[in-house]
Amino acid sequence: MSDYGAPNSPVEDLDLKLWLDISRKRHTAVVCALAKVLDARSHTFVISAASEDLFEHLKSELETYGVTILNRARSRGAFTTFLSAPSQVARLAGWARQHAFDLTLCLDNPVQAAASRLIRVPVATLLENPLDPGSQILRRAAGFIGVPHYLTAREMTGLKIRSSQIVWRYEDAPEAVFFDGFKATPTSRRDMFEELGWPMSEANIDAPLVIYRPADRPHSKREVVEALAEFAKYPCITLVLTTDTKFVDVHSEEDVPTLKVLPPAEDSRRILSLADLVVSHGITLVKEASVVKTPAFWISRTKPKNRLLHLIERGAIAQALTLAEALSKPPQKRQDPAPQVVSHLASDLVAQLESFHELSS
User: Fold this and answer.
1) Distant-in-sequence, close-in-space partners of 17: CB < 8 Å, separation ≥ 6
2) pTM of this structure
3) What is the pLDDT of residues 82-140, one digit of tens each?
4) Backbone Cα Rg of the chain
5) Interval 150-185: pLDDT, tens
6) Cα distance from N-terminal residue to C-terminal residue, the chain
7) Which CATH number fits domain 17-179+343-360: 3.40.50.2000, 3.10.310.10, 3.30.300.180, 2.40.30.170?
């Protein structure tokens, strides 16, 4: 028995047995959307995950969608170092060989791509970050490559995709799947504040709502005090999304009733749809904010790449070096409500995978 565990009981062979190994939590929304489409088309969707916590999170999300997980296998390890990669690929390939997959779908997972090639399972990949060095492994391993529409002809040429590989230019952003068909409930911020147990005075109820996501690391007391002081300068309502208990320890709702600290919401769609401004040290939240047309600042000194760069260049997201810079001007109330999002990414991708499977068979 390999380190990845024994396979489940045999299941009925269907038209397509697709395998997806999840290595990042941000892929959950895409996985759920794919699962619904694949389930409706009677395909077998086999899911594994890079950690026990990630797998349990994914399982709970899929159960929410009413989708049955036919294989509860779990993989180990992540693509952490060059020296550890070969053993990770070999272990994952040994586990995958037991399941007789028809097709592998890779989302930013070079270990899965390499393992699939090792056991000669056709590989399809959806490139979210095509300009990252790690995408080279995905491009070399895949017979089918989904490429975001915003890449220029020069950037496409730089990917050095072989003529024998099938290229699909997809238009929907992966983050759009998260908001597909979503309607914020309740529809007013006043009702949302009540649900959060956050009474708001009439003097503050109409102030701009700012969502702030600090860096995902422990903060010193001084850092927290300085961050909270920046928000205190402006007449705004602030939701701080963080698991860092230092923010809870330092902040007093009695002293600053217009600021509340919450753990990062698993379903952040409502607050993003009702917010006037998003300020985040992470990439995911600002990209999600752009889907519902909420102004956003990405705080980083790093040069942006991939879709983030595309969004910054077209003005959907702004980059700031510090929180003080992002809040240098008081935020304004949004003029338009969040748009209704309709995403065809999952259904279009499954249709493409079905065609690729027929060609590969």
Assistant:
1) 43, 44, 46, 99, 100, 101, 102, 103
2) 0.85
3) 445 788 888 889 888 988 999 999 998 898 999 999 999 999 999 999 988 889 999 99
4) 22
5) 999 999 999 999 999 999 999 999 999 999 988 877
6) 29
7) 3.40.50.2000
